[in-house]
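Input record (one chain):
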Amino acid sequence: DCLLSRGLGDVYKRQGLDLADDEHGRDALWALARAALEMPNPADAEPGVDPMREASRWRVVLASTLYKLKVALTGFLTKALLRRALGRAATRAVLELVAMPVTALWDGIVCWLILREAKLRVLGPSAALELTAMILPATPSPALATCVLRAVASSIVRTQDLHPNLLALLRTVRRALATESPADIDDTARFLTDLAALPAHEQTVTLRVLATAAIIDGHLAREEVRLVGEAFAACGRRFDRAGLDALRRAFVSGDPIPRARIEAIG
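The corresponding structure, as predicted from the sequence alone:
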């Protein structure tokens, strides 16, 4: 991991960029290294935020087991299908011929997923800076600052993954607000309660930050979408799921996201 992150840093330096000269740069290098090695994101990278706070233990174990067995399961299913279609004798004869394209197909899919994830992680820190600048007011109230931080942390909890883009967004927002993280920052119930108590214009700001947190990792987890819906309902507003999906696709594709599109949220 360390050697790979150094290698990536050298590549960027040859392009005139030095990603290791600040906290964001160092985080970006580690994030890229983890994407290349398909390593899970560390759950303890941000004190006070527990991505697994609301996770079901049996689901975590099942997901981890399936992740580790994905290659073995692919081979097993391929053999089972061949036996059913061709019979046991024929399976032995063609298995070696079939194994090569199946392996190549699997490797191609894995490479595509890794490159897609690496692209997202490169875009993440700069997107966090740009989108935060569009959304946050110059002089936020203490209540708004607290609720915005809770919005990002709650998104992390519902995603059940401390994705580096979400971590970059949380740190960017905290630095822009010039405030410390509140106690129980990752309490989603507290977030929804505090959100409902905000004035309408501050609710709009918080909903825009929450939508940004939902799309900045490139995925829309089911529980995360439910959180966004709950947040809009707490404000007495209609949740546009299709609009959130479109925003996510634009971000994943690397398309420009103009200010008007952000201001349409909420």
